[in-house]
Amino acid sequence: MVDYEFFDLGDFSLQRGVTLRDAKLAYKTYGTLNADKSNVIVYPTWYSGQHYDNEWLVGEGMALDPKNYFIIIPNMLGNGLSTSPSNNPQPYNKSRFPNVTFYDNVRAQHKLVTEKFGIEKIALVVGWSMGAGQTYQWGISYPEMVERIFPFCGSAKTSFHNIVFLEGVKAALQADAAWKGGWYDEPPTTGLRAVGRVYAGWGLSQAFYREKVYLQMGYSSLEDFLVAFWEGFFLKKDANNLLTMLWTWQNGDISQTPGFDGDFEKALGAIKAKAIVMPAEMDLYFPPEDNEYEVKYMPNAELRVIKSVWGHFAGGGVNAVDTKFIDDSIKELLAS
């Protein structure tokens, strides 16, 4: 059963000079929009994730409580539900799908929020990982509209180290002969399995493996964890979709927003929203040092670090202690 809706973007022009024709943005809403449309939360998706992967942070008694807020989860372009390599018709199908930026994604989401719902103010934009990248982008693209932002385990600009990691993911996938330059008929499963193993060493911390936390999760050995969790995770994904989102991630940079000409510090300073920026202490993709630098230039931001051995996945909803820390902090931000 389909539990989401589509917003027609029409002929949607992308930042890098291509038009996606008859583009569609998949989204799901939770709760009810109040009379003055002041209870809106936008919660973008992350790398390979779809709206249902965000639902761990939505629920009764939580900060994102549908009884109190109208929560919109828009699916990123390229994630398999919104217009993507796997569902777009020729000629921009499969490996011909164009490059999409965070700026493009947020502009599409803004069209949904304003044209579909008539919303003028957003109480909060919140997101994990690539969702955090979109959260920063909301703050810079629409500073008069967004009142609060809560980016966690992500950054306003993808670091060189993070770009190098993603080159490893890309190479693992494209080394599979079955990938066929993106024109495969059957999934390149060897490449997808390899991506899972590359990700395994980066998504979680050294301490996670040292303490054998995977045994507490119900896996019987390290190899069982690598196959059942990591390979299994990526075998469900489409390779071209992964590569499209990977490009978006590698090219994340709010200073590429029109009007900022690559001036990263100036762009950070233009984010007016009240912010809690939340890295995870042992995140190998987005270390706290990157966010410390960002917060120095943001006029209304606080840095708050998740103390956890779960690395990047401290923000993934897989550990109750970390989830409570995130949720409590969002409640505090919403109350401010």
From TrEMBL:
AB hydrolase-1 domain sequence ranges: 63-313
Active site: 129, 283, 312
Entry coiled-coil feature ranges: none
PANTHER family cross-referenced by the UniProt entry: HOMOSERINE ACETYLTRANSFERASE FAMILY PROTEIN (AFU_ORTHOLOGUE AFUA_1G15350), HOMOSERINE O-ACETYLTRANSFERASE
Identification of the protein by name: AB hydrolase-1 domain-containing protein
NCBIfam families, alphabetized: PRK07581.1
Family annotation (Pfam families): Abhydrolase_1
Organism: Stenomitos frigidus ULC18
Domain of life: Bacteria
MF GO annotations: acyltransferase activity, transferring groups other than amino-acyl groups
